[in-house]
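note to self: dont lose this again. the chain is below, predicted strucutre after it. 381 aa total, dont forget to put it in the shared folder this time
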Amino acid sequence: MNRLHAVVVGLLVSAGLAANPLTTIDPPPPNQPKPVGKPMKGPSQGADMKVMADPQGLDFGIVSPHTVLEGSFSLVNLSDTPLSVLQAVPSCQCTTIEISGKQIPAHGSLAVPVTMKVSSTGIKMANVKVMVQNQPRPITLDLRAEVAYPIRALIEDASGVPQPYIDAVTDPTRLSGTATVVSTDGAPFRVLSVQGQPAVVRDFDGAKDAPRNRYQVDFALPASPCEAVAKYLIIETDRTDARLIDMRVRHQCTKISPGLDIAEFRSNAGVIPIGGSGTIDLEVKKMDQNTIASVKSMDPRFTASLVGQRADGKSVMATIRLEPNASVRGVFLIGVQLSAADAKGRPYFTQRPEPAATPGAPPRVLTLPAEAEVLVYGKVE
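---
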């Protein structure tokens, strides 16, 4: 399940692939209106609670990746006594401004402005647990957004239902087909490439026809050997706010079973200038006191280096720099491997339960090196 990363001012929660001065990800158009977080209801907090959240949650709807969202909560004190905020614990990797000790006046409220930065596509959800003096339970502030590029690609599944992924689990022939690529805001654009190759667009002549807001684009992915089956389909367009979009490929050969719990197993490095570099931020969950010890590119044309990492609770946010060599041009999709170490710098191992080999047999537990490979895509130009 995807988790929402956010930066909360007052409760600062951060998300996904954060923009970095070294990264050349194109920003959203400057004149776009800011998304508004609409109030949403949460579970009943009970009559025994002296402080309530208003609203209980914020839903920002559909937003673009790498967007900063702004909203506000209020903590409302229903009692006759001022109450102090003791602690605020977000559900994901975050930076938190210290609010311990701040008071909520009797029959008054404390404003909690929120700034949320989202990156990778999908449904993003998180919460912040706020502990208040004399409260029997934490107050939960819920955050939700659907992150999507202004250009979407859809492919019909075996039932004929359009999906944002390729459904080839039971039918490998579906690794080839036609995708509908459409701008959600109706603005015209061009499809430039599919999986790094010139796009094959039906009923469209790029030399003669004006740009459209919808296309039928053919794709063909290799079906064998197993390691050649792509985990993602990468589509390139000419829109500055959606240069590269991805589609998950669901297939027997594309299952992901890493030794580290990565929040997102693919990352968009955006457009990297020739001779330059890009950075990505990756959240590694359930790390306790462990750290990322090293990173390496699985493609010899690229160098991956660990710029830094910061811990928050059981999660670690690692910043990785990616440098293509002088020969790299065009769209790329490569693996970057992360290896972890324990608090003393020694390699450590994780355990993963596996189904029983035969009916009635006890389940197996595999011991694996604490490593994971993340797919990184982008373009060098």
